[in-house]
Design a protein that fits this description.
By secondary structure, this protein is α+β, with helices and mostly antiparallel strands. The chain has two domains: 7-106, Nucleic acid-binding proteins (OB fold (Dihydrolipoamide Acetyltransferase, E2P), Beta Barrel), CATH 2.40.50.140; 119-353, no CATH class. 24% of the residues lie in helices and 32% in strands. The strands form four sheets. Strands 8, 14, 15, 16, 17, 18 and 19 form a seven-stranded mixed β-sheet that branches. A hairpin with a 2-residue loop joins strand 11 and strand 12 (190-198). The longest helix has 15 residues, at 255-269. The termini are far apart.
């Protein structure tokens, strides 16, 4: 068994970096590899046919427990997943000379990225919230960490810290220059939900659109950020609001009856989900009050949007419905297959590169 690797002790490694690796053995979904430069163990995710002993050019993704997680970088050894046609295998030096990928060759990474952006398009919700980021869970302890001024730090380092370190939690971004507030849910270094708001926006944008605005704000001199950890189970449950499937009600039951039923159903089906409770306003819209988090059928707590407090159970949600029969109950479920892909979520480094290219 390989010893656990420390990301910060890896010399010069960062997401997206080109790395030469040597195939050592075939494994499920890919190959066990060795990185000759630093004699590090790794895993290469690939469906292509590669011979043991062959050296190829790969891309650093992240640390995966006790080894480096890689992905094929250039087109010579890749498979056209659209037409299922394999291309001729080439020496990695020749691949590098050719530069970027052949546009006719679609890599596994790009396929996953495109797929994620497709299902991450957030549908408009019936509920509205006091501020754009109010309903993004605060730290379990309740108190936000001290803010960091981005201009006092290196943005690239900050992004690598989150993505390369496989951070799971939340980043909240505040910009006085454009009067914006935004927040992103991060699961193992990748963004799986994002919301952005300021006074000029009348409707919530998609996760992708919100993330682009958030990244742009990070380039402003007065921007501050707050970063904190959250349990993986809570992050996945909350992500159902962004990348899950909202249940459409066809019953005519009152809110209490429906809530009791859905609680039992989620437990029986061992679902991962987020339940949102909202109260009607005089204008006819609904204002979010509580979020309930379910992970594989188990309720792991609730969150008050108004007080920004966590509760160990969902009794406050029962109390709200009991006192307010008109409460709107919305349920979003996270399909298990959404988290099974290695490219689940948006890459922060790719977003940063996209931002830098647009600013040039």
């Amino acid at each position: 068994m390989n010893k656990p690797l420390n990301f910060w002790k890896l010399p010069g490694y960062k997401p997206g970096q080109n790395i030469v690796c040597k195939v050592v053995a075939i494994e499920k979904d890919g190959y066990r590899v060795q990185i000759p430069k630093d004699n590090l163990p790794g895993f290469l995710l690939s469906k292509q046919k590669i011979k043991v002993g062959e050296e190829i050019l790969a891309e650093f993704v992240r640390l995966d427990k006790n080894r480096v997680f890689l992905h094929p970088r250039l087109s010579g050894a890749e498979v056209n997943f659209t037409n299922k046609i394999e291309t001729k295998q080439e020496d990695w030096q020749e691949q590098f000379k050719k530069g970027v990928r052949n546009v006719n060759i679609a890599s596994e990474q790009s396929q996953f990225e495109i797929a994620f952006m497709t299902f991450a398009e957030n549908k408009p919700q019936a509920s509205k919230f006091r501020r754009a980021i109010d309903w993004i869970s605060s730290p379990i302890e309740g108190k936000l960490p001290s803010p960091i001024k981005v201009s006092d730090n290196d943005l690239g380092w900050l992004i690598n810290n989150l993505e390369g370190g496989m951070h799971t939690g939340c980043i909240k971004v505040f910009s006085e220059e454009v009067k914006s507030r935004s927040a992103a849910l991060i699961y193992r270094g990748r963004v799986i939900g994002c919301i952005y708001g300021n006074k000029t926006l009348t409707e919530a944008d998609s996760t992708e659109g919100s993330l682009q605005k958030l990244m742009k704000d990070l380039s402003l001199t007065d921007t501050t950020v707050v970063i904190y950890d959250l349990p993986e189970e809570l992050i996945l449950a909350m992500s159902a609001l962004f990348v899950g499937e909202q249940l459409n009600r066809t019953d005519e039951n009152d809110s209490q009856t429906y809530f009791d039923y859905i609680v039992g159903w989620l437990k029986e089906k061992e679902q991962t989900a987020c339940i949102a409770l909202s109260l009607p306003t005089k204008s006819g819209e609904y204002l979010g009050e509580y979020l309930g988090f379910v992970y594989k059928g188990k309720f792991i707590g609730s969150f008050s949007i108004e007080s920004q407090k966590h509760f160990a159970d969902i009794s406050p949600m029962f109390n709200l419905i009991e006192k307010n029969p008109q409460t709107l109950v919305q349920v979003s479920i996270l399909p298990a297959e959404n988290t099974s892909k290695p490219w689940f979520g948006h890459s922060l480094n790719m977003c940063l590169r996209h931002l830098n290219n647009n600013l040039q």
